[in-house]
Every structure is written in C-alpha cells, then in structure tokens.
C-alpha cells in the first residue's frame, strides 16, 4: 500500500520515524525539516546537549505538527551511534549525515584528524545501519539514505580522509542495498556538491576580501569553480531528494548514488 494512501492525512510519510544524524544545523537540519514537512516523526542529533538543541526540536514539532526529539550522541563513538538508534526506539528512515572535514597534504595530515574523519563520516554509518536494520526487517519497511558527497565519486587534493570516507560511504551503500535487496528496504547515497549552509555563507565575506571580488563574482569564480551550474545546491533540495527516496516512486531505486552537484561529476 502506498504510504500516502494509508497516512495521507498526516502527509506522505505519516507514521514513519526518521533519525537524522548531525542534524542541528546545515544539511542535516534541512533534511530533517523536509522529512517533518512530509509527516515523519523526527529524531534530531548532534554531539552537544544544549537547551537550544532541545528547543530546536520543540519548535520543529510545533511548526509541522509531528513528534520531534533531540538525542545527543557522539558519532565518533560506535557505541553511542548504536545507542542513538536504541534510544530513538528504532527507525523507519535513517539518514546518515554527520560529518567533519580537514584539509592538509597527506604527509602533513594529522593522524588524529584522519581517525576522527573516518570514524564520523564512515564508521558511524556502519554502526547506525547495523543497529537499525533488524527493526526495519521486523516492520517490513525501511529506507537508509547516506549523505555522501561529490567527493564520494571524484577526488580533490588535500582532502584524503574526507575523500576516502565518502568513497567508503558509496561502497557501504551498495553493500547494504545488496544485503536488503529482497526486503522492502532500500539504501541509497546522495552526493551533494557545494551546498549553501550557514557555515558556507559565513565564509563568503572573507573570500570577497581575500580575492577583492563582489559577492556574486566570488561565488561563481572561486567557491563554485568546479560546479558547472555556478549555483549552490540548497538544503531544501537535498531534503526533497531524501523525501523522494522514501516515496513509493523510489521503491526500486536502491544501491545507487544521486548527484545533487550542479553538474560537477559530469565533467
């Protein structure tokens, strides 16, 4: 039965519980908002445990009329990744979004940064998926969406750990899809290019000063040099793509990547 037919009054994803890692800002928050807009109950997550984190959940619940909770979990620690799923009460939709970045030449790359990036950007997804799949199998429905990157399909210098982790996410996605192929569970990866998040927005004035350019020029010629559209993707677009992958129309889409990168990986 189409989810929309059964739960149309609550939205296309009414009655489903979604866990989104790294979701108190940026892409993760944008994805969580679109899932809530579609009617899903949502669990927000990050490594902090501030009043504003819980207020964010309360505000989202009031805005969309769904249940929203915030659960602290450090995605660099496997036991906390698994505990997140347990504390959430399981999930129908799992979005692995948590990630960090560090830029340095390989010979200068700090070992602790390598370990942290691999743990948060890759190993956390292994742990959350392993914890979530039994419940998805038992309920007879599940969607796993891993937020990879254009760097999961191509590379850039000085980003060895990030590129390795995101390539690993793409491989993990394919493996999970094959292991769940005969179940009503799908697993896909979204590969964004540059996305306009508050963190990226905050970098624009410094780039303007450094290059002596206006806002539009520095965006097109510096920040989006590798993105042929010369436009940022938005968090709403990524959230919409996640919602699509959770829809009935995407039931036979599994084990693949969807690039939201303005043509970057077409080059």
From TrEMBL:
Taxonomically, the superkingdom here is Bacteria
Which BP terms in the Gene Ontology apply to this protein?
Answer: monocarboxylic acid metabolic process
Question: Entry's InterPro entries?
Answer: 3-OHbutyrate_DH, NAD(P)-bd_dom_sf, Sc_DH/Rdtase_CS, SDR, SDR_fam
Q: Which GO terms describe its molecular function?
A: 3-hydroxybutyrate dehydrogenase activity
Under PANTHER family, the record lists:
3-OXOACYL-(ACYL-CARRIER-PROTEIN) REDUCTASE (PTHR42879), 3-OXOACYL-[ACYL-CARRIER-PROTEIN] REDUCTASE FABG (PTHR42879:SF2)
Family in the record: Belongs to the short-chain dehydrogenases/reductases (SDR) family.
Protein name, as recorded: 3-hydroxybutyrate dehydrogenase
